[in-house]
Automatic annotation (TrEMBL):
Catalytic activity from the UniProt record: D-maltose = alpha,alpha-trehalose
Superkingdom of the organism of origin: Bacteria
EC main group: isomerase
Protein's name according to its UniProt entry: maltose alpha-D-glucosyltransferase
Tagged with keyword Isomerase: yes
Amino acid sequence: MSFTAPIPIIGASHVPGLRLDPDWHRKSVFYEVMVRSFVDSNGDGFGDFQGLTSRLDYLQWLGIDGIWVPPFFQSPLKDGGYDVSDYQAVLPEYGTIDDFKHFVSEAHARNMRVMIDLPINHTSDQHPWFLASREDPEGPYGDFYVWRDTDEGYPNVRIIFVDTETSNWAFDSVRRQFYWHRFFSHQPDLNFENPAVHDAVYDIVRFWYDLGVDGVRLDAIPYLYESEEGNGESEPATHQFVRDLRRMVDDEYPGRVLIAEANQWPAETAEYFGTAEEPECHMAFDFPTMPRIFYSLRAQNASELQRVLAEQVEVPPGAAWGVFLRNHDELTLEMVSEEYRQAMYGWYAYDPRMRSNVGIRRRLASLLDNSRAELELANALLLSLPGSPFLYYGDEIGMGDNIWLDDRDASRTPMQWSPDRNAGFSTADPGKLFLPPVQSLVYHYTSVNVEAQMAQASSLLNWMRSVLHVRRQHPVFGLGTITVLETDNESVLAFVRSYGGDGTYHGPKEEHVLCVFSFSHNPVHVTIDAPDWSGAALHDLFGGGQFPTIADDGRFSLTFGTQSFYWLHIGSQA
Ligand code: GLC
Ligand code: CA
């Protein structure tokens, strides 16, 4: 199959029953793709919904179950679309509401879910609400934003975009007051103390669920409320808002999900699941684990990862982590210690241009110096963690980045489909593209592209596809618990994923899989302690090969080549 020419759209427009499985979000592999970066169907230099729809077959072929599309709404695009000026309109460059509806039904026809992204903490300063708020303080939108006469309120709140902002307050020359903003100064924060703001947000959420989306990512969710005493992150009122929103979703849109983007310390991130009685989000991105994966790869030491995974709080029934290696933002280092942060800057951001705010603006393949062993190790670990994996577009072919572009655009360049003009992304005059495709020595689109990797059986793309297909055969990866095991080698991480099987709606059978990863840059031998599994037989999940049985004392030994992993089925005990 070639994906360089438009693919004819096939299939029914709706699959009845797609939402019947209440655990769908726990069994899915998601793919994040920015609409403007994927396929340009009309040659104007911008990717669009028709283009994205034309490549759904590719995503299905790869083994993707859900697509996360970052904001595609009307926007001045000063923050990649996270600066929204109309939440109920599609940016004309991306298409129309009808194009979006068509995209959703074609995704559903392929058994893929669609997750959109709603930045509700703030709007663009071009949003009509803000224009009205600054013009008419007494009018209906006067209190839609957080206005003050001075720039002194909320003194304990940190600045997030430290590269560009010096204060969370900005002066508005029209209203002659200061307004509050957690991100860029062109993104005023909505005032959640105002009930009318809640109504407006509910209208937006309902609008998109009514169009058939399966999930909503709650962008920047910790920052909704601020207080004089607090630090403006995850304040009690913010959690109350999320709980109320969840109740509405459960009542009106059962089976659809909310996912929290909360870049917080482990315990605080987990709070976005709420409790079984008072749930908040169905999913939350696992920000704590992600940077520790990159740390382990270079430190050749698994102990920090071992600690975080062993301490990971259990999520309420039906909830799931969203695990990821990279996304459209910088690899954030906000939630690691200063010592780790400095080590990671040294390993991964040795050129100052690679940094952005408190993080690193590079893609997976270039972070890992294009090492195939490391790419396989990192992806296999991602696919083994408790939760649902989110891949970032282009990482399946090992796309590189362009640190000469501004800010996070470094890793938002056109998808590389083929060695043709504009990497097969667009037929436009190259100068017209929203961003140029990568043309660096190692990652040039003439060598790194989908077409070439499809033609080569041993390519990263084909490896990704096969590992995704193996994972899909084993629901334990999505549904199971995790038990971290002791090893006698600090560069080796070992854990068991276990699923008991509950027999409901043809639920999967009981299954236990041992996942072992060696971060060492040299071959190693390790002895692992699995006291609960003495006498159990081990078989490789890929080829079925038999491994030594676990000894009576629960120990067994493995030998690893450089940076490698095993997925071993744990069979019946003798
Ligand atoms: C989220 C988005 C990021 C955006 C920010 C402000 O963190 O992931 O891309 O810049 O919100 O909207
Ligand atoms: Ca276009």
